[in-house]
Amino acid sequence: MITRRRFMQMTGFAVAGLIIPGVPRRGHAAAQIAGLSDPALQPKFVNLVPDALSPAFKFYPKNQKKMTYVVSMGPSVMQTGLVDQNGNLLSTPIFGYGTPDEGFTWPGKTFEVESGIPIEVKWQNKLIDFWGAPLPHLLTSLSGQSVVDTSMHWCYSLHGYTAFSHEVDGVPVIPHLHGGHNIDIFDGNPEYFFSPGYAVRGPRWAAKDFIYENDQPAGNLWYHDHALGITRLNVYAGLAGFYFIRDAEDTGKADNPLGLPAWPYEKAYAIQDRMFKDNGELFYPAYPGDPFYEDFIIEEGAELPPELFPGGGPTGLAEFFGDHMVVNGLIWPKEDVERRNYRLHLLNGTDSRFLVLRFRQVPAGATDLTEAGPPLPFYVIGSDQGLSSSAVATDTLLFEPGARYDIIFDFSMVEMGSRILMENIGGDSPFGGAFGEELEDEDVFENRQTDRVMAFDVVLPANNNVADNFNPAAISHYSGNTQAVARVRKVALFEGMDEFGRLQPLLGTAEPATDYLGNPINWPDTPEYAAAGLVGQMQGAIGWHSPTTENPALGDTEIWEIYNATGDAHPVHLHLVNFEVMDRRDFNANVVEQPILQHNGTVGNGFRLEDIQVGAIQPAPEGAVENSPKDMVTALPGQVTRIKATFDRPGRYVWHCHILSHEDHEMMRVLHVGPGA
Description:
Elements: H1 4-11, E1 68-78, E2 92-99, E3 103-105, E4 108-114, E5 119-125, H2 166-169, E6 175-178, E7 209-212, E8 219-225, H3 231-236, E9 240-246, E10 266-276, E11 282-283, H4 293-298, E12 324-327, E13 330-331, E14 334-337, E15 341-348, E16 355-362, E17 378-383, E18 386-394, E19 397-399, E20 404-410, E21 419-424, E22 452-458, E23 487-497, E24 503-509, H5 527-532, E25 540-542, E26 557-564, E27 570-574, E28 579-597, E29 603-618, E30 632-635, E31 639-646, E32 651-657, H6 660-663, E33 668-673
Parallel strand pairs: 1-5, 4-9, 10-15, 14-22, 23-26
Antiparallel strand pairs: 1-2, 2-3, 5-7, 6-8, 8-9, 10-11, 10-12, 12-13, 15-20, 16-19, 16-21, 17-18, 17-20, 21-22, 23-24, 24-25, 26-31, 27-30, 27-32, 28-29, 28-31, 32-33
């Protein structure tokens, strides 16, 4: 097996040399480990999927006139459909959104709001026990040890916060409305976190009550936790939910002007992947012997000092691929449907997995794809922040982590009694731009269960009282960003190593950094930066804590050129804005090693790009549909991906890779609009 470290040595990636895009893909499906749930033995397509758009599963304002909500994060126990070896249902402890009176759920209940009408949400951290004491994080190893890696740059490693711990002071959280167009203090930035009872508040914490102005067209947003360095664990524990904005055309009602299917023919599915212990508890790897530990620690040659990592952990790992597919908190569920058009809102809520979705007919009751028919067509009518420029007919959809897609599937094309499986032909490994063929060469996929997500059983009698009037020609809503361009900004994606030799995904610039006025941005003139050799104008890979380099002027429209100098695709997310995906081009560059100053003053390895040469326009990735207002984009290895956005609110936001394990380990940077960065 060729590791990333060995690949860099072979290609000159760690010294000046020409980029050679594409690391050989590594299979990450894990062999069965004692103490973990075996996905092959779990029931498939037995339980009905929870309805995230049901009126009973929505948050409603406490004060209808003022549109105020009170929502807490708290512990609960759910049944996810898991069973033990005797077929008995198991219970799974989770962290969820809800209220102490009504309980907490994974996913959290759905917000449904009107465009142009602000709401106020009081977020409360109720991750406490029966007596009111803060709870430690619920994720533990097979032996019951915490998986929280305190060596990473996280909430309680910040200056002035190291005396706190999740065991004593509780789990820090900060909700982020993903896709929201909000004032910065309400955006859910990672350093705005708070512990139970607001006893510990992040260095930029500002308010208990968040104002969401909803001054944007109808769209399928979502909310999830975003606390610094612990996002992957908090979201994994259950802290995520849907947030729908409706407007005069996309009303969500049966008489909407666009003829779109409305509830109960409109559904929302949060697709996630998980591992479970055989007692039903969530499992997340962090120790020797766990899945992915050998890939990212041993084979990469990382050296973890035993005084910091007793027994070899807990340590953050660069990626996570679960072996149980979960939809709305239930493993491999099903939906009973009529023979008619349904509107399906899809959310990729996984940590690292690029989904590639298809719909195929199988015999009634089938639980695998052995006798599946060919992929069936459907329409993509929208994505992250709204409806598309036109409905796109396809039978395959590439779907990056953090993204949302809005599709219409016509179940009348199949016979009554049929079963349709939602198939996933994306692999259990980092995505490099191709899919499908890599599965044939990996024996680890012999018993793969992640190739199927959920089932649709066409068994309900037709309700002829509700019209089925979908017309794809009615979708013509997005015209791109027509604003004049003030600046072309060159940013970059890198893979370096932290002070322990662990793989460390990084962001940075592909040009010397300048502020919103065009003035140079220099490395800080401090002994730490000078000792690392980081002097002069900033460029290349940069840690979260270093000065801000992405500093658009207020009101400016920019083209961002995202240079991917890694071997994997990355799902890039910008807060505040939506953007137009313009094109992708090949590029070559000299890759020069440079230090990366870590949050604790130690030094790791990073890179910078020099002598960049951009080539011809390349096609979009197979299965990508991008003709809508996006806040997520797949940046392929060895390519420069160009997006166009307008930065119309001042203040401090962030941009990052939405592989949660990446953003937690420094693949996130501040995005500051206007002065004050």
